Amino acid sequence: MKINQQKCVGCGNCVPVCPMGAIYVDQSTTRATINDDACVECGACFRGMSTENLNPTMVRTVRKVAKFLRFRFEPEPDVCPTSAFEMHDLEMPRLIRQIFSDPVVEHKSTGIKGRGTEEVKTNDVNPRVGAGEVGYTIEFGRPGVGVRFFEIQNMTRELARNGITFEKKNPITHLMTNTSTGDLREDILQEKILSAIVEIKTEITRVEEVLRIVHDVNDKIDTVTAVGISTRCDENGEDKILDPLLEELGFVHVRAKTNMGLGRVTNQIELKKIEEINI
Amino acid sequence: MTNTLHRYGSAESFRDDYIIFAIPAKGLNDDDCIPKLKDFLRICAKHNPANIGNGNRSSLAPEKGLKPSAHWTRNKKPDWNKVIDEVGKSGTVSAVFAHENDAQACFDEVVKADFGLSVNMSTSVENAKRVAKACGVSRHSVEYALPFNDPHDHLPNSQVLELSTMCGHGMVSFNFAKKMLDMVREGRRTPEDAAATLVRFCPCGVYNPVRAKRLIEEACKEQR
Ligand code: SF4
Ligand code: SF4
Fold first, then answer.
1. Within a 10 A sphere around the Cβ of A261, how many other Cβ atoms?
2. Pairwise CA distance, residues A88 & B177, whole Å
3. Domain architecture of chain A: domains with CATH
4. By the number of CB atoms within 10 A of the CB, which of A80, A121, B154, B216 ranks highest?
5. A226 and B6 in contact by Cβ < 8 A?
6. Distance (Å, whole) CA A53 – CA B223
7. pTM attached to this predicted model
């Protein structure tokens, strides 16, 4: 992400908008500047801010006069008055920042946007987590902190060391050079992103152990993690296994995504395959 | 993707926060899913949603090339039709409701429409259970959000966290949520204006302006 220095008037509106705190008004130039190392290319500034196309010279003059008179400007807080943000094409490894941080950029490795897969959201159509199994989404960097890939690697290595396997279609798994050791691609390790999700699955008996691993590794990496933990309900729509277990382990779990079970296969090719199996 | 799992708050604080979303499964029910996704959103739009979104656009979106007069006449009216018209490819579409009866009526109609797509509800565990039961549906799977692990004290206070995490993709920064809270505290914006400003940063359309307004009002009363 770049800020056009000819256009920027240093109003500072964009400074708090950045989730990574990467934007500051440079006192020597009185223009907003981006700290490239902190910027994760999320697009919150470029896309999220509304814009005007005011003449920068005119705005600077008005601002100078108002400042001299100690008038307080009260513009809309989400507007860049001169459309100064510019998004440029990126190349690897920096491109990886955008792929994992900008929610409207398509994730090439999965074909879906975002940082994970369909998880249990389509478990009714595409069974991933079966009865007695537990799915985990371990999210790094969110909310609002960010993470570097070498920190994620600390976790994937520890999970792999404990014999845990990774969801094949997950974008982080795609970036592994060795899924049995949890090693990630060397060229991206220092890159910073807004967040990423590692997806795994275990038997119900390993829940306590996995959550302990996440907790212990998080102590050693300078970011936040958020775990989503999922299971299949019984035929009456009840979860009599994971819910009580989390209760017993002392984990507050008041919020959830609930798959209501309305999905089914409707693509003709897949229906044909099912028919053939049934014959 | 909408990323609504890790909204911060107590179970009680989700009393005005019911997200219903439809998602096609790749290769299994995504052929010709766009008309179904649009119909899903049309049903949602009938039941008094707080916001709807198609993953790329919210009902209240950033405005480019504003006229200077916009500072006094800012649009705060959600546009459902734009969101519905712009569903262009297979992906998650969603609606947020601030009242359980609206969410339930919407979900009931979605069940009857029988799109064959996966439909999820993101809210408190108990809210979703009640809606499922009222509509005669058995829950298929459930993904619980566990509390944030923050051993290095990165996270801000709960008021900022509640506002910021309503955009699950992190597009509402802590600093901006705090700025909007402070602007309301200082009497420079109304809670409604502040909520509308925050909504525009969430491109998926899952940000809940009704809950945001309530949280801002409560936060301003209970100074920290
Ligand atoms: S909002 Fe625009 S004009 Fe104002 S400081 Fe940021 S880039 Fe510069
Ligand atoms: S792209 Fe994102 S991280 Fe980079 S400056 Fe803009 S808001 Fe900040």
1. 21
2. 27
3. 2-86 (3.30.70.20), 105-278 (3.30.70.930)
4. A121
5. yes
6. 38
7. 0.94
